[in-house]
Structure formats: C-alpha cells, structure tokens
Design goal:
CATH superfamily of the largest domain in chain A: MetI-like
Structural class of chain B: mainly alpha
Helix content of chain A: 55-70%
CATH architecture of the largest domain in chain B: Orthogonal Bundle
CATH superfamily of the largest domain in chain B: MetI-like
CATH topology of the largest domain in chain B: MetI-like fold
Order of helices and strands of chain B: HEHHEHHHHHHHHHHHHHHH
Radius of gyration of chain A: 34 Å
CATH architecture of the largest domain in chain A: Orthogonal Bundle
Radius of gyration of chain B: 29 Å
Largest sheet of chain A: 4 strands, antiparallel
Strand content of chain A: 5-15%
Helix content of chain B: over 70%
Oligomer: heterodimer
Chain lengths: 410, 402
C-alpha cells in the first residue's frame, strides 16, 4: 500500500499564476531594462573607449552632384569626400539613376553604367580624401532644363567608418586619466565630506523638528506643511534663491551680516574654497531635513503611549524618557534613513551643479561625471567616473540590504 | 545649576539673544533699515529679566511687566538689546520697542512657568530647558524655511537698481499697482513662459498616466502572485532607485543623440516615466499588500477574471494610494531638472525648469530669475497645500523604502 505524499513540483494553477504575474510585469521589466540596465552596460563599454563628444557624429561619405559645362563638354560631376580628416571609411559606393533624356558617354572606372543605372565603387576612402568623377553626357534639348532633374535626384551612398563605439578596441586610458594625480582624491574627499555631513546634519535637524511637532496643537498641520517646503519646491527655484540670497554684491545675507557687524566686508559664500563646500552641505541639510523629519515624526507617533505613561509612574524625567525610551524606539528608522540618505546624498548632482557648478572645491564624483563628459567633452572619462560611482554604490547597497533585511524584514 | 535663581537668568540671557536677533532680522528684512542685536547687552538684560521672572511667579506681576517695558523702551536709547540705526523711521522704532516688550514678556512667562526661585526638581529644570529649546526650535525652523521663499518672492517684485542699492530692503511700493509684476509679464511675453508652463504641465500629466499604466499591474503582480524571482524582483526595484540619474543620463544622452530623440518632447515623455515607475511600483505594492484578499477572492468566485478583479475591486479600493502616487510622481516630473537640461536645447521645447535655468545668465536681471523660480514653485506648492494629506502619505510611503 502506497503512503500518501504531498504533491511535489509546481501545479498547473501555480504555473498559470506565475505566467500571469510575468505578463503583468513584462511592460515594466522591458522598459526599465531598456532605460536602466542597457545604459548601465553601455557605461561600462564606453568607459573603456576613447570616446569624445565629437564622436557622436561618425565619419561618413558626402556626395555632391552637379551638371557642368555646355555643348560637347557637358558632363555630370560627382564629388565624393570623407567628412572626417583622419578616419578612413570602407566600402564607399555611389549609385544614381540618370533621368530620361540623358544619355551618358564613356564611363571610366570605378564606375559602371547599366542602362540608366550608375554604380561607382570607391573602396576605401582615406581620411580627408576627395574623389571627382566626370561623366560626359548628351541631353535631348536645353541643358538648363535638365539641371534640376539631374541635381534634384539624390545619389545613394553607402560606406561606413569605424565607429569608436562599436569596434573592439579597448583601452584603460580613461581610468588612468580619472585616477591620475591628486584631483581624484580631492574629489573623493569632497564627496565624502558632503555625503557624511549632509546625511548626519539632515538627520539631526529632522529629529529636532520631529520632536517639536510631536504633540498635537492648533496649527500643527500648517507648520508641518511649511517645514516640508524646502523639499517639495523645485530644486532650481531654491538653488537659485540661495545663490541670490548669498550673492556677494546684491545678496541680502551679506548685507545683513555687514549691518550686524559680524563681517566687515561681503563674503563670497559660494566662491571661496572651504566655505563653498560647507555652504553646499548646509544647503543639502536644509533641503532634505524635511524628509527625515517626516519619517521620524511618523515613527514617533506610532510609539505606544502606554510606555511613556509607565515611565511617568516611575518618575522618569523628560530627558530620561527621551534618551531611554524614544531614542531606542527610533534607532531602527534612524539607521534606515541614514543608509538611504547616505546613498542619495552620494548620488546628488543637481544641487551642487546649480549652486557652484562644481567650482571652488565642491566637485563631487557625480559633478565630475558631468565635468569630464561635457565640460572637457570626453565622454569616455565621464563614463569611467560613473563606473567608479557604481562600484561604490554596489558596496553601499550590499551593506544596505544586509541591514535592511534585519530592520524591515524585506 | 538646578537652582531657580541660576536657571532663570541663564535661560533668560540666552533667550533674549535669540529674540533680539529674530526681531532685528525681521525688522531689517521688512524695512531695509539698520537693526543690530547687541549680544553683551542682551545677555545682561536677559539675565536681569530672567531673575525677575523667576522671583515673581504671578503671571502679571508688576515687576515682570515693568522689566519687559523698560527692556522694550531701552531700544530707543541705544542701550537696549537691539541697536537701531539713526535714520530709521519713528514708526519702525516704536514697532521694535513694542515687539521686544511684548515678545519678551510672553515668551519668558511661558519658558519660566512653574519654575520656583529656589531649589528645582529634575522635572522642573528639564521642563524649563525643553520649553526653551521648543521656542528656539520654532523660531529657527520657521526662519530658515520662510526666509529663502520670502526673498524669492520679494526679489521678483523689485527692480535691479533698488536691489543693488539696498539688498535688505524688501518693502514693496504698493502704489505701483500692476507694475509690481512687470518681471512676470516680461517672462510671459518675451520669454515664452506660458508655453513652458504648458509643456511642463502636460509632460508631468503624461508621466503620471504612463507610470500608473505600467506600475499598477506590476505592483499587483508583485503583491499578490507567488512566482519564482519575486523577492529578487522587489529588491532590484529598490536597487534601480539607487542608481544616480547622472550615470544614466550619460548613455541616454548618447542614445538620444544617435537616434534623433534629443531635443524632442517625445524623448522626455519616454524617459520620465521610467525614472518614476520603480518608486510608484514600490509604493503601490505596499498598499496592495495591505488590502484584504477576501474581497478579491469573492470576486474570483463570482466568475470575474483576474484583470476584471483588478479593475473592478482593487483599483476602486486603492484610490487614495493612487492619488498619493500620482501626486508624488507629478512632483518628481515637475521638478525634474537634469534630464531636461541635458536633452533639451531648443527654446521652443523647454520645460519650465529648463526655462528657468536659461534665465540664469549675467545678461538677464536677477528679478527675472526669481520670478521664474516663483512661477515654477507656485503650482507645485498650491497642489501640495491643497492635497497635503495625500502628499505627506505619498512622501512617507515612497521614500522610506525606495
């Protein structure tokens, strides 16, 4: 007699469910992988290539067709040139169809004529090379009336240069350039300073603000909304406001400092070396304290109040309640926030770019991507910096997931 | 330290520095005249006031009212907590004196409430310190949030000369009437801001729709179905949210340049939703998990298909969550700067944020830039204040985990 065993493997129902699940997910998976995974792979690829902004236009053959001369000398001229001065283009051919009423004379190499169809094979066109082909023709009637017909038909061109993007030559030049010299370590230090202090500052300020609002009173909703303003407003609006506010010539902050006798002359807040970095960090704290505030407040309001009542009965003082009850309860959310904010601050680009443009010692890794790729127009080097950022992020997210699976049971 | 006659003067002294600074900054920003807190005098005045407020516990004790009035009036002499410039209007001077007197009385009475003169218990002492910190916190946070936005709005209403002459003077001349808003009318007339506003609006709305279209089925699948790779999938959503935009923007720039999608609204509308789908998916799946399965199972028993269940049961139940997600996505799309900046060069296709960036040049006066900033900020703020409940929920759900 066979004993009853539970069914093994996946049942038909489960299979159907999984199929439906993937069907529902597929649009997201496809679009996200197109715009996220593919670019990430592309970044790796490009970072090993000497790729500059100029290479976005690959070399191509350019053809001009014109009707020249008159009478016996009447001829069609094709002028072919390589758009690039250095790179050779392979497999260059030109095809064209002669319009009705045009009879071609003798056609010389590299062209052949087959009925009205003209085919020229140039093979390889060196960088900067120009070719000219003359085809003597006779026309029935007035040559001028044929000019439009002849010049109007675009000749077909083939031939492609080696695109830097698609060939299989790799070099470590970009990485050498990125890691070269003291610049990289300077950038890394700035990034770390900005990230660490920006994150901690925003958390501490958020905690303070949450403590303020963790009681119900009239107008609590309004104040909570007000304190979220810096986060909700568009970054361009607040960044430019800060720049205006701290402008050395027409900024109100400087006028205020001078008037209060705290400073004898205007300070260039976003233009001096250590100060600019401190200012962008302060901006980061200012802009993101609302986020930490919101989460900490939400967590505070979910703490069981009976615990505080018990503490009151035991005669705990307000500070004791804060240190011994609230902080341990908030430790979870604080550490999750710290990790998340750390990663996001590390990724931040817009704020510094708008405030200082990465000048005056505020160039972080992300700003460096932009600097390399667009200011120096070396996309390859920018991609190499991006790869460095990704490596750091992989390390961070490893820590993050180890930690968060404990904290949030994810 | 835990003696009323020490705690009172110490807290009073520091507190007076805080309010003298606050009053000086407020008056400077609203009149443009010179106001300066005198730290040393503040400390002395505050210590005296603190001592009196601890000594005379009755709420309206004559000594309390006396010291506050004297302290306020001293502003007129030059030996008060706030030093006032000589060319300030009498009105402003009186307002300062009055404000100092009233604010000092009310705040000190509140902070040093129930604080006896002699020995303090631990509770009494800590309560006083906490009330002090609370007061300071409200002033501090309100100041740092309000001042930038105040400067933004006021600068947009001023003329370039007035701005350079006295950067502190934010008083507006109301007699100008509509001429006050000339920066705005110039932006709309000469800089196409009407078009940018419209472009930003429809790009954001389209982004919201496309995001929901993709993320609702995806979130439902992740929340409800069991399938291989479900856990890996949830995690990779989070991971994707952590990839910095600038890293993605670089290859996207190259791809769009090669395919001719750069400089087109179509390209922007294609790329924005992808940056928001992971967040939306994460927020929605959290909400769907919280919905009771029994309702859906009842629907299935009654012969509805899965898709019909989603459409007829799940979606109507999750309208609040959909509202939060939509608002959050709208905010992201509206505020987006980097991609618009990199992918759009043609002024006729700018979004609002890209348009404001264009104003940041030395040839265009500052107040135009600030007016542009106000135009970009006002719609999102109005939306935020009107639907604050949803927005707050959306922010919390969207960002703690992803």
């Amino acid at each position: 007699m066979s004993s009853a065993t539970p069914p093994t493997g996946t049942g038909a129902l489960a299979k159907r469910e999984a199929r439906l699940a993937w069907a529902l997910l597929s649009p997201t998976v496809i679009s996200v992988s197109l715009v996220v995974i593919l670019p990430l792979l592309a970044i790796f690829w490009i970072s090993f290539k000497p790729f500059t902004l100029a290479d976005l236009r690959p070399p191509a053959p350019v053809v001009r067709e014109s009707l020249r001369g008159s009478g016996e000398e009447l001829r069609i001229e094709y002028r072919v040139r390589n758009s690039s001065q250095e790179i050779a283009i392979e497999g260059v051919t030109v095809t064209d169809v002669l319009p009705d009423g045009v009879t071609a004379g003798e056609v010389s190499a590299p062209c052949v004529l087959n009925g009205p169809d003209l085919f020229c094979d140039f093979g390889t066109l060196e960088g900067g090379q120009r070719e000219r082909i003359r085809i003597p023709v006779t026309v029935d009637g007035d040559p001028d009336s044929f000019e439009d017909a002849i010049e109007g038909s675009e000749p077909g061109v083939t031939g492609s240069g080696p695109s830097v993007l698609t060939n299989f030559e790799f070099s470590l030049e970009n990485y050498a350039r990125v890691f070269d010299g003291d610049e990289f370590w300077g950038v890394l230090w700035v990034t770390l300073f900005y990230t660490v202090f920006g994150t901690i500052g925003a958390l501490v300020m958020g905690l303070f603000a949450a403590l303020l609002l963790n009681k119900s009173f009239k107008g609590q909703g309004i104040i909570r909304g007000l304190y979220l303003f810096p986060y909700v407003a568009p970054v361009i609006a607040v960044a430019f406001t800060w720049v205006t506010l701290f402008d050395p010539f027409s900024g109100s902050a400087n006028a205020l400092l001078v008037q209060m006798g705290l400073s004898s002359e205007p300070i260039n807040f976003f233009g001096e070396r250590p100060l600019a970095l401190i200012m962008v960090t302060v901006f980061e704290i200012w802009r993101y304290f609302p986020l930490s505030f919101l989460f900490i407040l939400a967590r505070m309001q979910s703490i069981d109040s009976s615990m505080y009542e018990a503490a009151d009965m035991d005669g705990a003082s307000p500070f004791q309640k804060f240190w011994l009850l609230s902080i341990p309860q908030l430790l979870g959310i604080l550490s999750v926030l710290f990790l998340l904010r750390f990663i996001w601050t590390f990724n931040k680009f817009d704020d510094i770019f708008l405030l200082t443009g990465g000048n005056a010692g505020t160039r972080t890794l992300t700003v460096n991507v932009y600097e390399q790729a667009f200011a120096i127009s070396n996309i390859g080097a920018g991609a190499a910096v991006a790869v460095v950022i990704l490596m750091c992020l992989i390390a961070f997210s490893f820590v993050f997931f180890r930690f968060i699976s404990r904290e949030e049971g994810l | 330290m835990r003696k009323g006659y020490i705690t009172g003067p110490v807290l009073g002294a520091i507190w007076l520095v805080v309010i003298a600074t606050t009053v000086a900054i407020t008056m400077s920003f609203s009149t443009g005249a010179a106001f300066r807190p005198q730290i040393l005098l503040c400390l002395i005045w505050g210590a005296v006031a603190g001592l009196i407020y601890v000594r005379f516990p009755a709420h309206r004790a004559p000594a309390r009212l006396g010291i506050s009035s004297v302290l306020g009036l001293s502003a007129l002499t030059g030996f008060g907590p706030v030093l006032i410039g000589s060319d300030t209007s009498l009105q402003a001077v009186l307002i300062t004196a009055l404000a100092m007197a009233i604010v000092t009385h009310l705040s000190l009475a509140a902070i040093l409430r129930d604080t006896p003169f002699g020995e303090l218990t631990r509770h009494e002492f800590e309560d006083a310190v906490i009330r002090f910190c609370t007061g300071f916190g409200y002033i501090f946070f309100t100041a740092i949030v309000v001042i930038p936005f105040y400067v933004m709005v006021m600068t947009s209403l001023k003329s370039q000369q007035a701005l350079l002459q006295n950067p502190l003077d934010f008083s507006v001349d109301l007699s100008q009437g509509w001429a006050l808003f000339r920066s705005y009318s110039e932006l709309f007339r000469d800089f196409n801001f009407g078009t940018y506003l419209w472009t930003s609006f429809y790009v954001s709305v389209l982004t919201v729709f496309i995001t929901l279209l993709f993320s609702v089925p995806g979130a439902y699948a992740v929340a409800r179905f069991r399938f291989k790779g479900q856990k890996a999938f949830s995690r990779s959503i989070l991971l994707i949210y952590m990839v910095p935009m600038i890293v993605l923007a670089l290859p996207i720039y190259i791809a769009f340049s090669l395919t001719g999608l750069r400089n087109s609204i179509l390209g922007i509308v294609m790329i924005y939703p992808v940056t928001t789908i992971p967040v939306a998916l994460y927020m929605l799946q959290g909400y769907f998990r919280g919905l009771p399965t029994e309702v859906e199972e009842a629907g299935l028993m009654d012969g509805l298909s899965r898709l019909a269940v989603i459409w007829k049961i799940t979606l109507p139940l999750s309208l609040p969550a959909l509202a939060s997600v939509s608002l959050y996505v709208f905010m992201i799309a509206w505020n987006e700067f980097l991609l618009a900046f990199m992918l759009l060069d043609d002024p006729s296709k700018f979004t609002l944020t890209r348009g404001v960036t264009m104003l940041n040049s030395s040839e265009i006066p500052r107040q135009h830039l600030m007016a542009g900033a106000v135009i970009a900020t006002v719609p999102i703020m109005a939306l935020f204040l009107g639907l604050e409940r949803f927005m707050t929920k959306g922010l919390t759900a969207g960002s703690v985990k992803g």
